[in-house]
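Progress report, Aim 2. The chain analyzed during this reporting quarter is listed below.
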Amino acid sequence: MSVSLNELSYRILLIVRPKISDDESIDISEIRYDIETTRALLTKRRYSNTFRHQLPESIVQSIKNIEIEYVNSSNSPITSRNIIMRSVNKVPKIMEYHSGMPMIKNISTATILSNNFTMITQQQASSCGNGKFNQHNIFCFYEDDYLYFITRRMLFKGVKYINLDAVFERPTSVFEYLNTYNNENLDRNSPYPISLDMVDDIEQIIIKNKLRIEAAQPIDDVNDSSDTKEIIQQ
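Predicted structure tokens for the chain:
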């Protein structure tokens, strides 16, 4: 069972709107923004200390066929012995663990090289692959919205596309990316990456916040979008 952003937004709007005094003070775009913001906060709170295999599929989004290209490393602090690849286009912002590492559940390619990806930070890039047992690994880090891959495996230079499963800050930004680069047709009525147990929490948080704001605002007794207002007596 899944829910769309529109479905969740209108459900909240229908609950909140009858309870507010000014019938023009809230709209659906505001609710959508609140949902994405609240989802991000709850996701970080719940999963910032988990392992990637513990990330539920319901909050993970997949981007297939991310194009990558070779980066000339001659002037890079990363040793020239390594092959450096980078995503051609910026990837939607990936949510981070408390450690600062991106919430990536899986990275893969269509080749046998897909089994040895090791996530690192940009700071670790200059020394990666120097260990006795990791010289043939493919290291990956996420910086400035680009994915970087570092390896000494010459065959990786021939890889053109990778697949990514991750938790993103704004799911709708992934919709936009997929529509632009993968010719998909996703919108606010498409399944939204949210666990069902989180839906109730998001609804309650947003409704409570809206009504708390309302309690501090003037009331429109006529409820006709006019400026006829009366301050609530506490």
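Confidence is low (pLDDT under 50) at residues 220-234. The CA atoms of residues 8 and 108 lie 32 Å apart. These observations will guide the mutagenesis work planned for the next reporting period.
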